[in-house]
Amino acid sequence: MQDSMGQPRWEGAVNARLVLGKVFRMGRSEWLTTTGWHQAYADGVRTVIDLRNPDERRRRHTDPDVDEAAKAGIAIISSPTEEPGHPEFERLAVPYMNHPRMYPENLAFFPERIVEVFHQIAISQGNVVLHCSAGRDRTGLIVSMLLELVDRQDLLEPQYEASLRGINDWHRISSYKHPHESYLEEEDLIGPLRERLDALEQFVGSLSVETFLRENGLSPAELDAVRRRLV
After folding, report:
1. Between vectors from CA 193 to CA 190 and to CA 197, what angle results, nearest 5°?
2. CATH number of the domain located at residue range(s) 17-229 in this protein
């Protein structure tokens, strides 16, 4: 179920939106209800790529009970963007990778993990949904690279701002209290938002995504397949 602008309206989904073409993004998949999974399938979703580490893929007591049959026909792929327990990265990503200033470090430490995500996008079936926990930074890393790849930098700031505001709004109403984040009023949000957008602009401006992906093993055919997903 999508609205008139093509934005997803999947029951339970948090921070869900269209990126471009056949690519969507959202927060934790565990937030989707049984109806939400059916709605995503009806909207053509056949692949969900989970960017979280394996130990994050667990149900919370506040998550809905879901009929697993509702996920039938949707491939759920685990493709983490980082290596859990990596000492150097963990010293930098405190308390976790939660800011665009950490994106270059993520690429530097784990290029093979990032390329694997793009490989999964290239071979995905149907519409594809990318998600991490909040749907903001690990998802934002991949989305910003996708947008640079197809020269749609005009969407970088709107996508990131929407994702930051989306999860901030969720913190306001969620019954699950996040251990590190909480709802921010607008006057407290605007400064961190501007700082994050500046860091995002610096990251994308310093990177040729095609060069990075090809140097780290993504084939020209796979690059073409990724680009077709964004048409």
Report:
1. 140
2. 3.90.190
**Secondary structure, 3-state, 62-86:** CCCCCCHHHHCCCEEEECCCCCCCC
CA distance 29 to 52: 11
- Global pTM? 0.96
pLDDT tens per residue, range 79-90: 999 999 999 999
Residue 31 DSSP one-character state: G
The span from the CA of 28 to the CA of 117, in Å, is: 17
With H, G, I as helix, E, B as strand and everything else as coil, classify residue 200: helix
Task: Give the Cα separation of 75 and 73 in Å (integer).
Answer: 7
| 26: β partners | 131
Q: Residue 126, Cβ neighbours under 10 Å: how many?
A: 15
Give the C-alpha distances (Å, rounded to integers) separating 139 from 88, 114, 185: 21, 11, 24
Instruction: Determine the Cα–Cα distance for residues 91 and 186; give it in Å rounded to an integer.
Output: 30
Q: Name which of 195, 223, 201, 225 is nearest 210 in CA terms.
A: 223
Q: Which residues on adjacent β-strands are paired with residue 48?
A: 76, 129
pLDDT (tens digit, 9 = 90+) per residue, 167-204?
A: 999 999 999 989 999 999 999 999 999 999 999 999 99
What's the rounded Cα separation, in Å, for the pair 167 and 133?
Answer: 10
Ranges of beta strands (E only) in the chain are 17-20, 23-26, 45-50, 75-78, 127-131
Instruction: Please answer whether residues 32 and 21 qualify as being in contact, where contact means their C-beta atoms are separated by less than 8 angstroms.
Output: no
